[in-house]
Protein: Ribonuclease h protein
Amino acid sequence: MGLWEISNLEKNDDQQWRLHSGNTSFWWDNWLGVGPLANFKQNGGRPGKVTVSNFWSEGQWDIQKLNPVAPIHMIPLILQIQIHNNHHIQDKAIWNPTSSGAFTCGSAWCAAKYGGKTSAITRTIYSITSDLLLLLRSSYSKVKWPPNWPEIYHISEQLIHYTSVQQVMWLRPTVDHVKVNTDGSALDNPGKIGAGIIIRGHEGQFIHAIASPLGIGTNNQAESEAAYIGIRWCIENGFSKIHFEADSKLLILWLTTSSEPPWSLSMLLQKIKTLCQQCESISYTHVFREANYPADSLSKLSHDLTTLTHFNNQLELPSQIRVQIILDQ
Structure:
């Protein structure tokens, strides 16, 4: 069987490239002979689509072009790669196990059958691994995840899943404080939104409740508007010691840290913080929805209302919400 010399193959550990015109992919082809250069990239972001000739000057490697882009520890190896400078000849894949650098017909047929697109498998593996690493690092930030798939798999196999059980319940505020529970409801995002607020004392007693339609907006806008309405009512009615509670982690984050909210909510959040400065004391807690049912139900009730509605007495509330308040106590 004769030998075929081919110039465009899937990446293989035994394959490298003879550089002529420099049309080989800088990141994805095995022109270094140690695998794609993308495997050695240490900083963030996916490599772009550039060819090796982008880093040449007059047929020689240009160190000034390599330094800001290439992995620093790979530059000495790159500089050792010979350039057979000839822009009339495309770069050619060399099969290292044979002295001629050629494939057998069988090898060439397999390469053609499974696609002639250079390094498609390498790019796919790199993309999947990169996305998987982003997911793992965000979900399991305490684990030091390695950059390559075999080690990722090995560590994943050793992880042990622990399930913890946490009691979720509404807790009374401290003496002389009121607790303001708020919630925002959005029928769509963006869509019709509403707010629910309930204020209770340190013995769990009902003080006041509000349900307010808010027009059209986002869920985060509804959460923020509910907080503003609840805190403002407390200040206007002489309650200056407040424990604020909501089931929106983002809202609590915006109120307690320097984290920037979306620009569309920045003025509203600033109004809330300005209100809070009028309080004698104020604290903030994130709570799960199961401990925020009355406010949640009030926010849903708001969709059936046309104006902001105050409830001065617990008996004025719908029976479902009255039951939720009793269960909290």
About this structure: Residues 120-139 form the longest helix (20 residues).
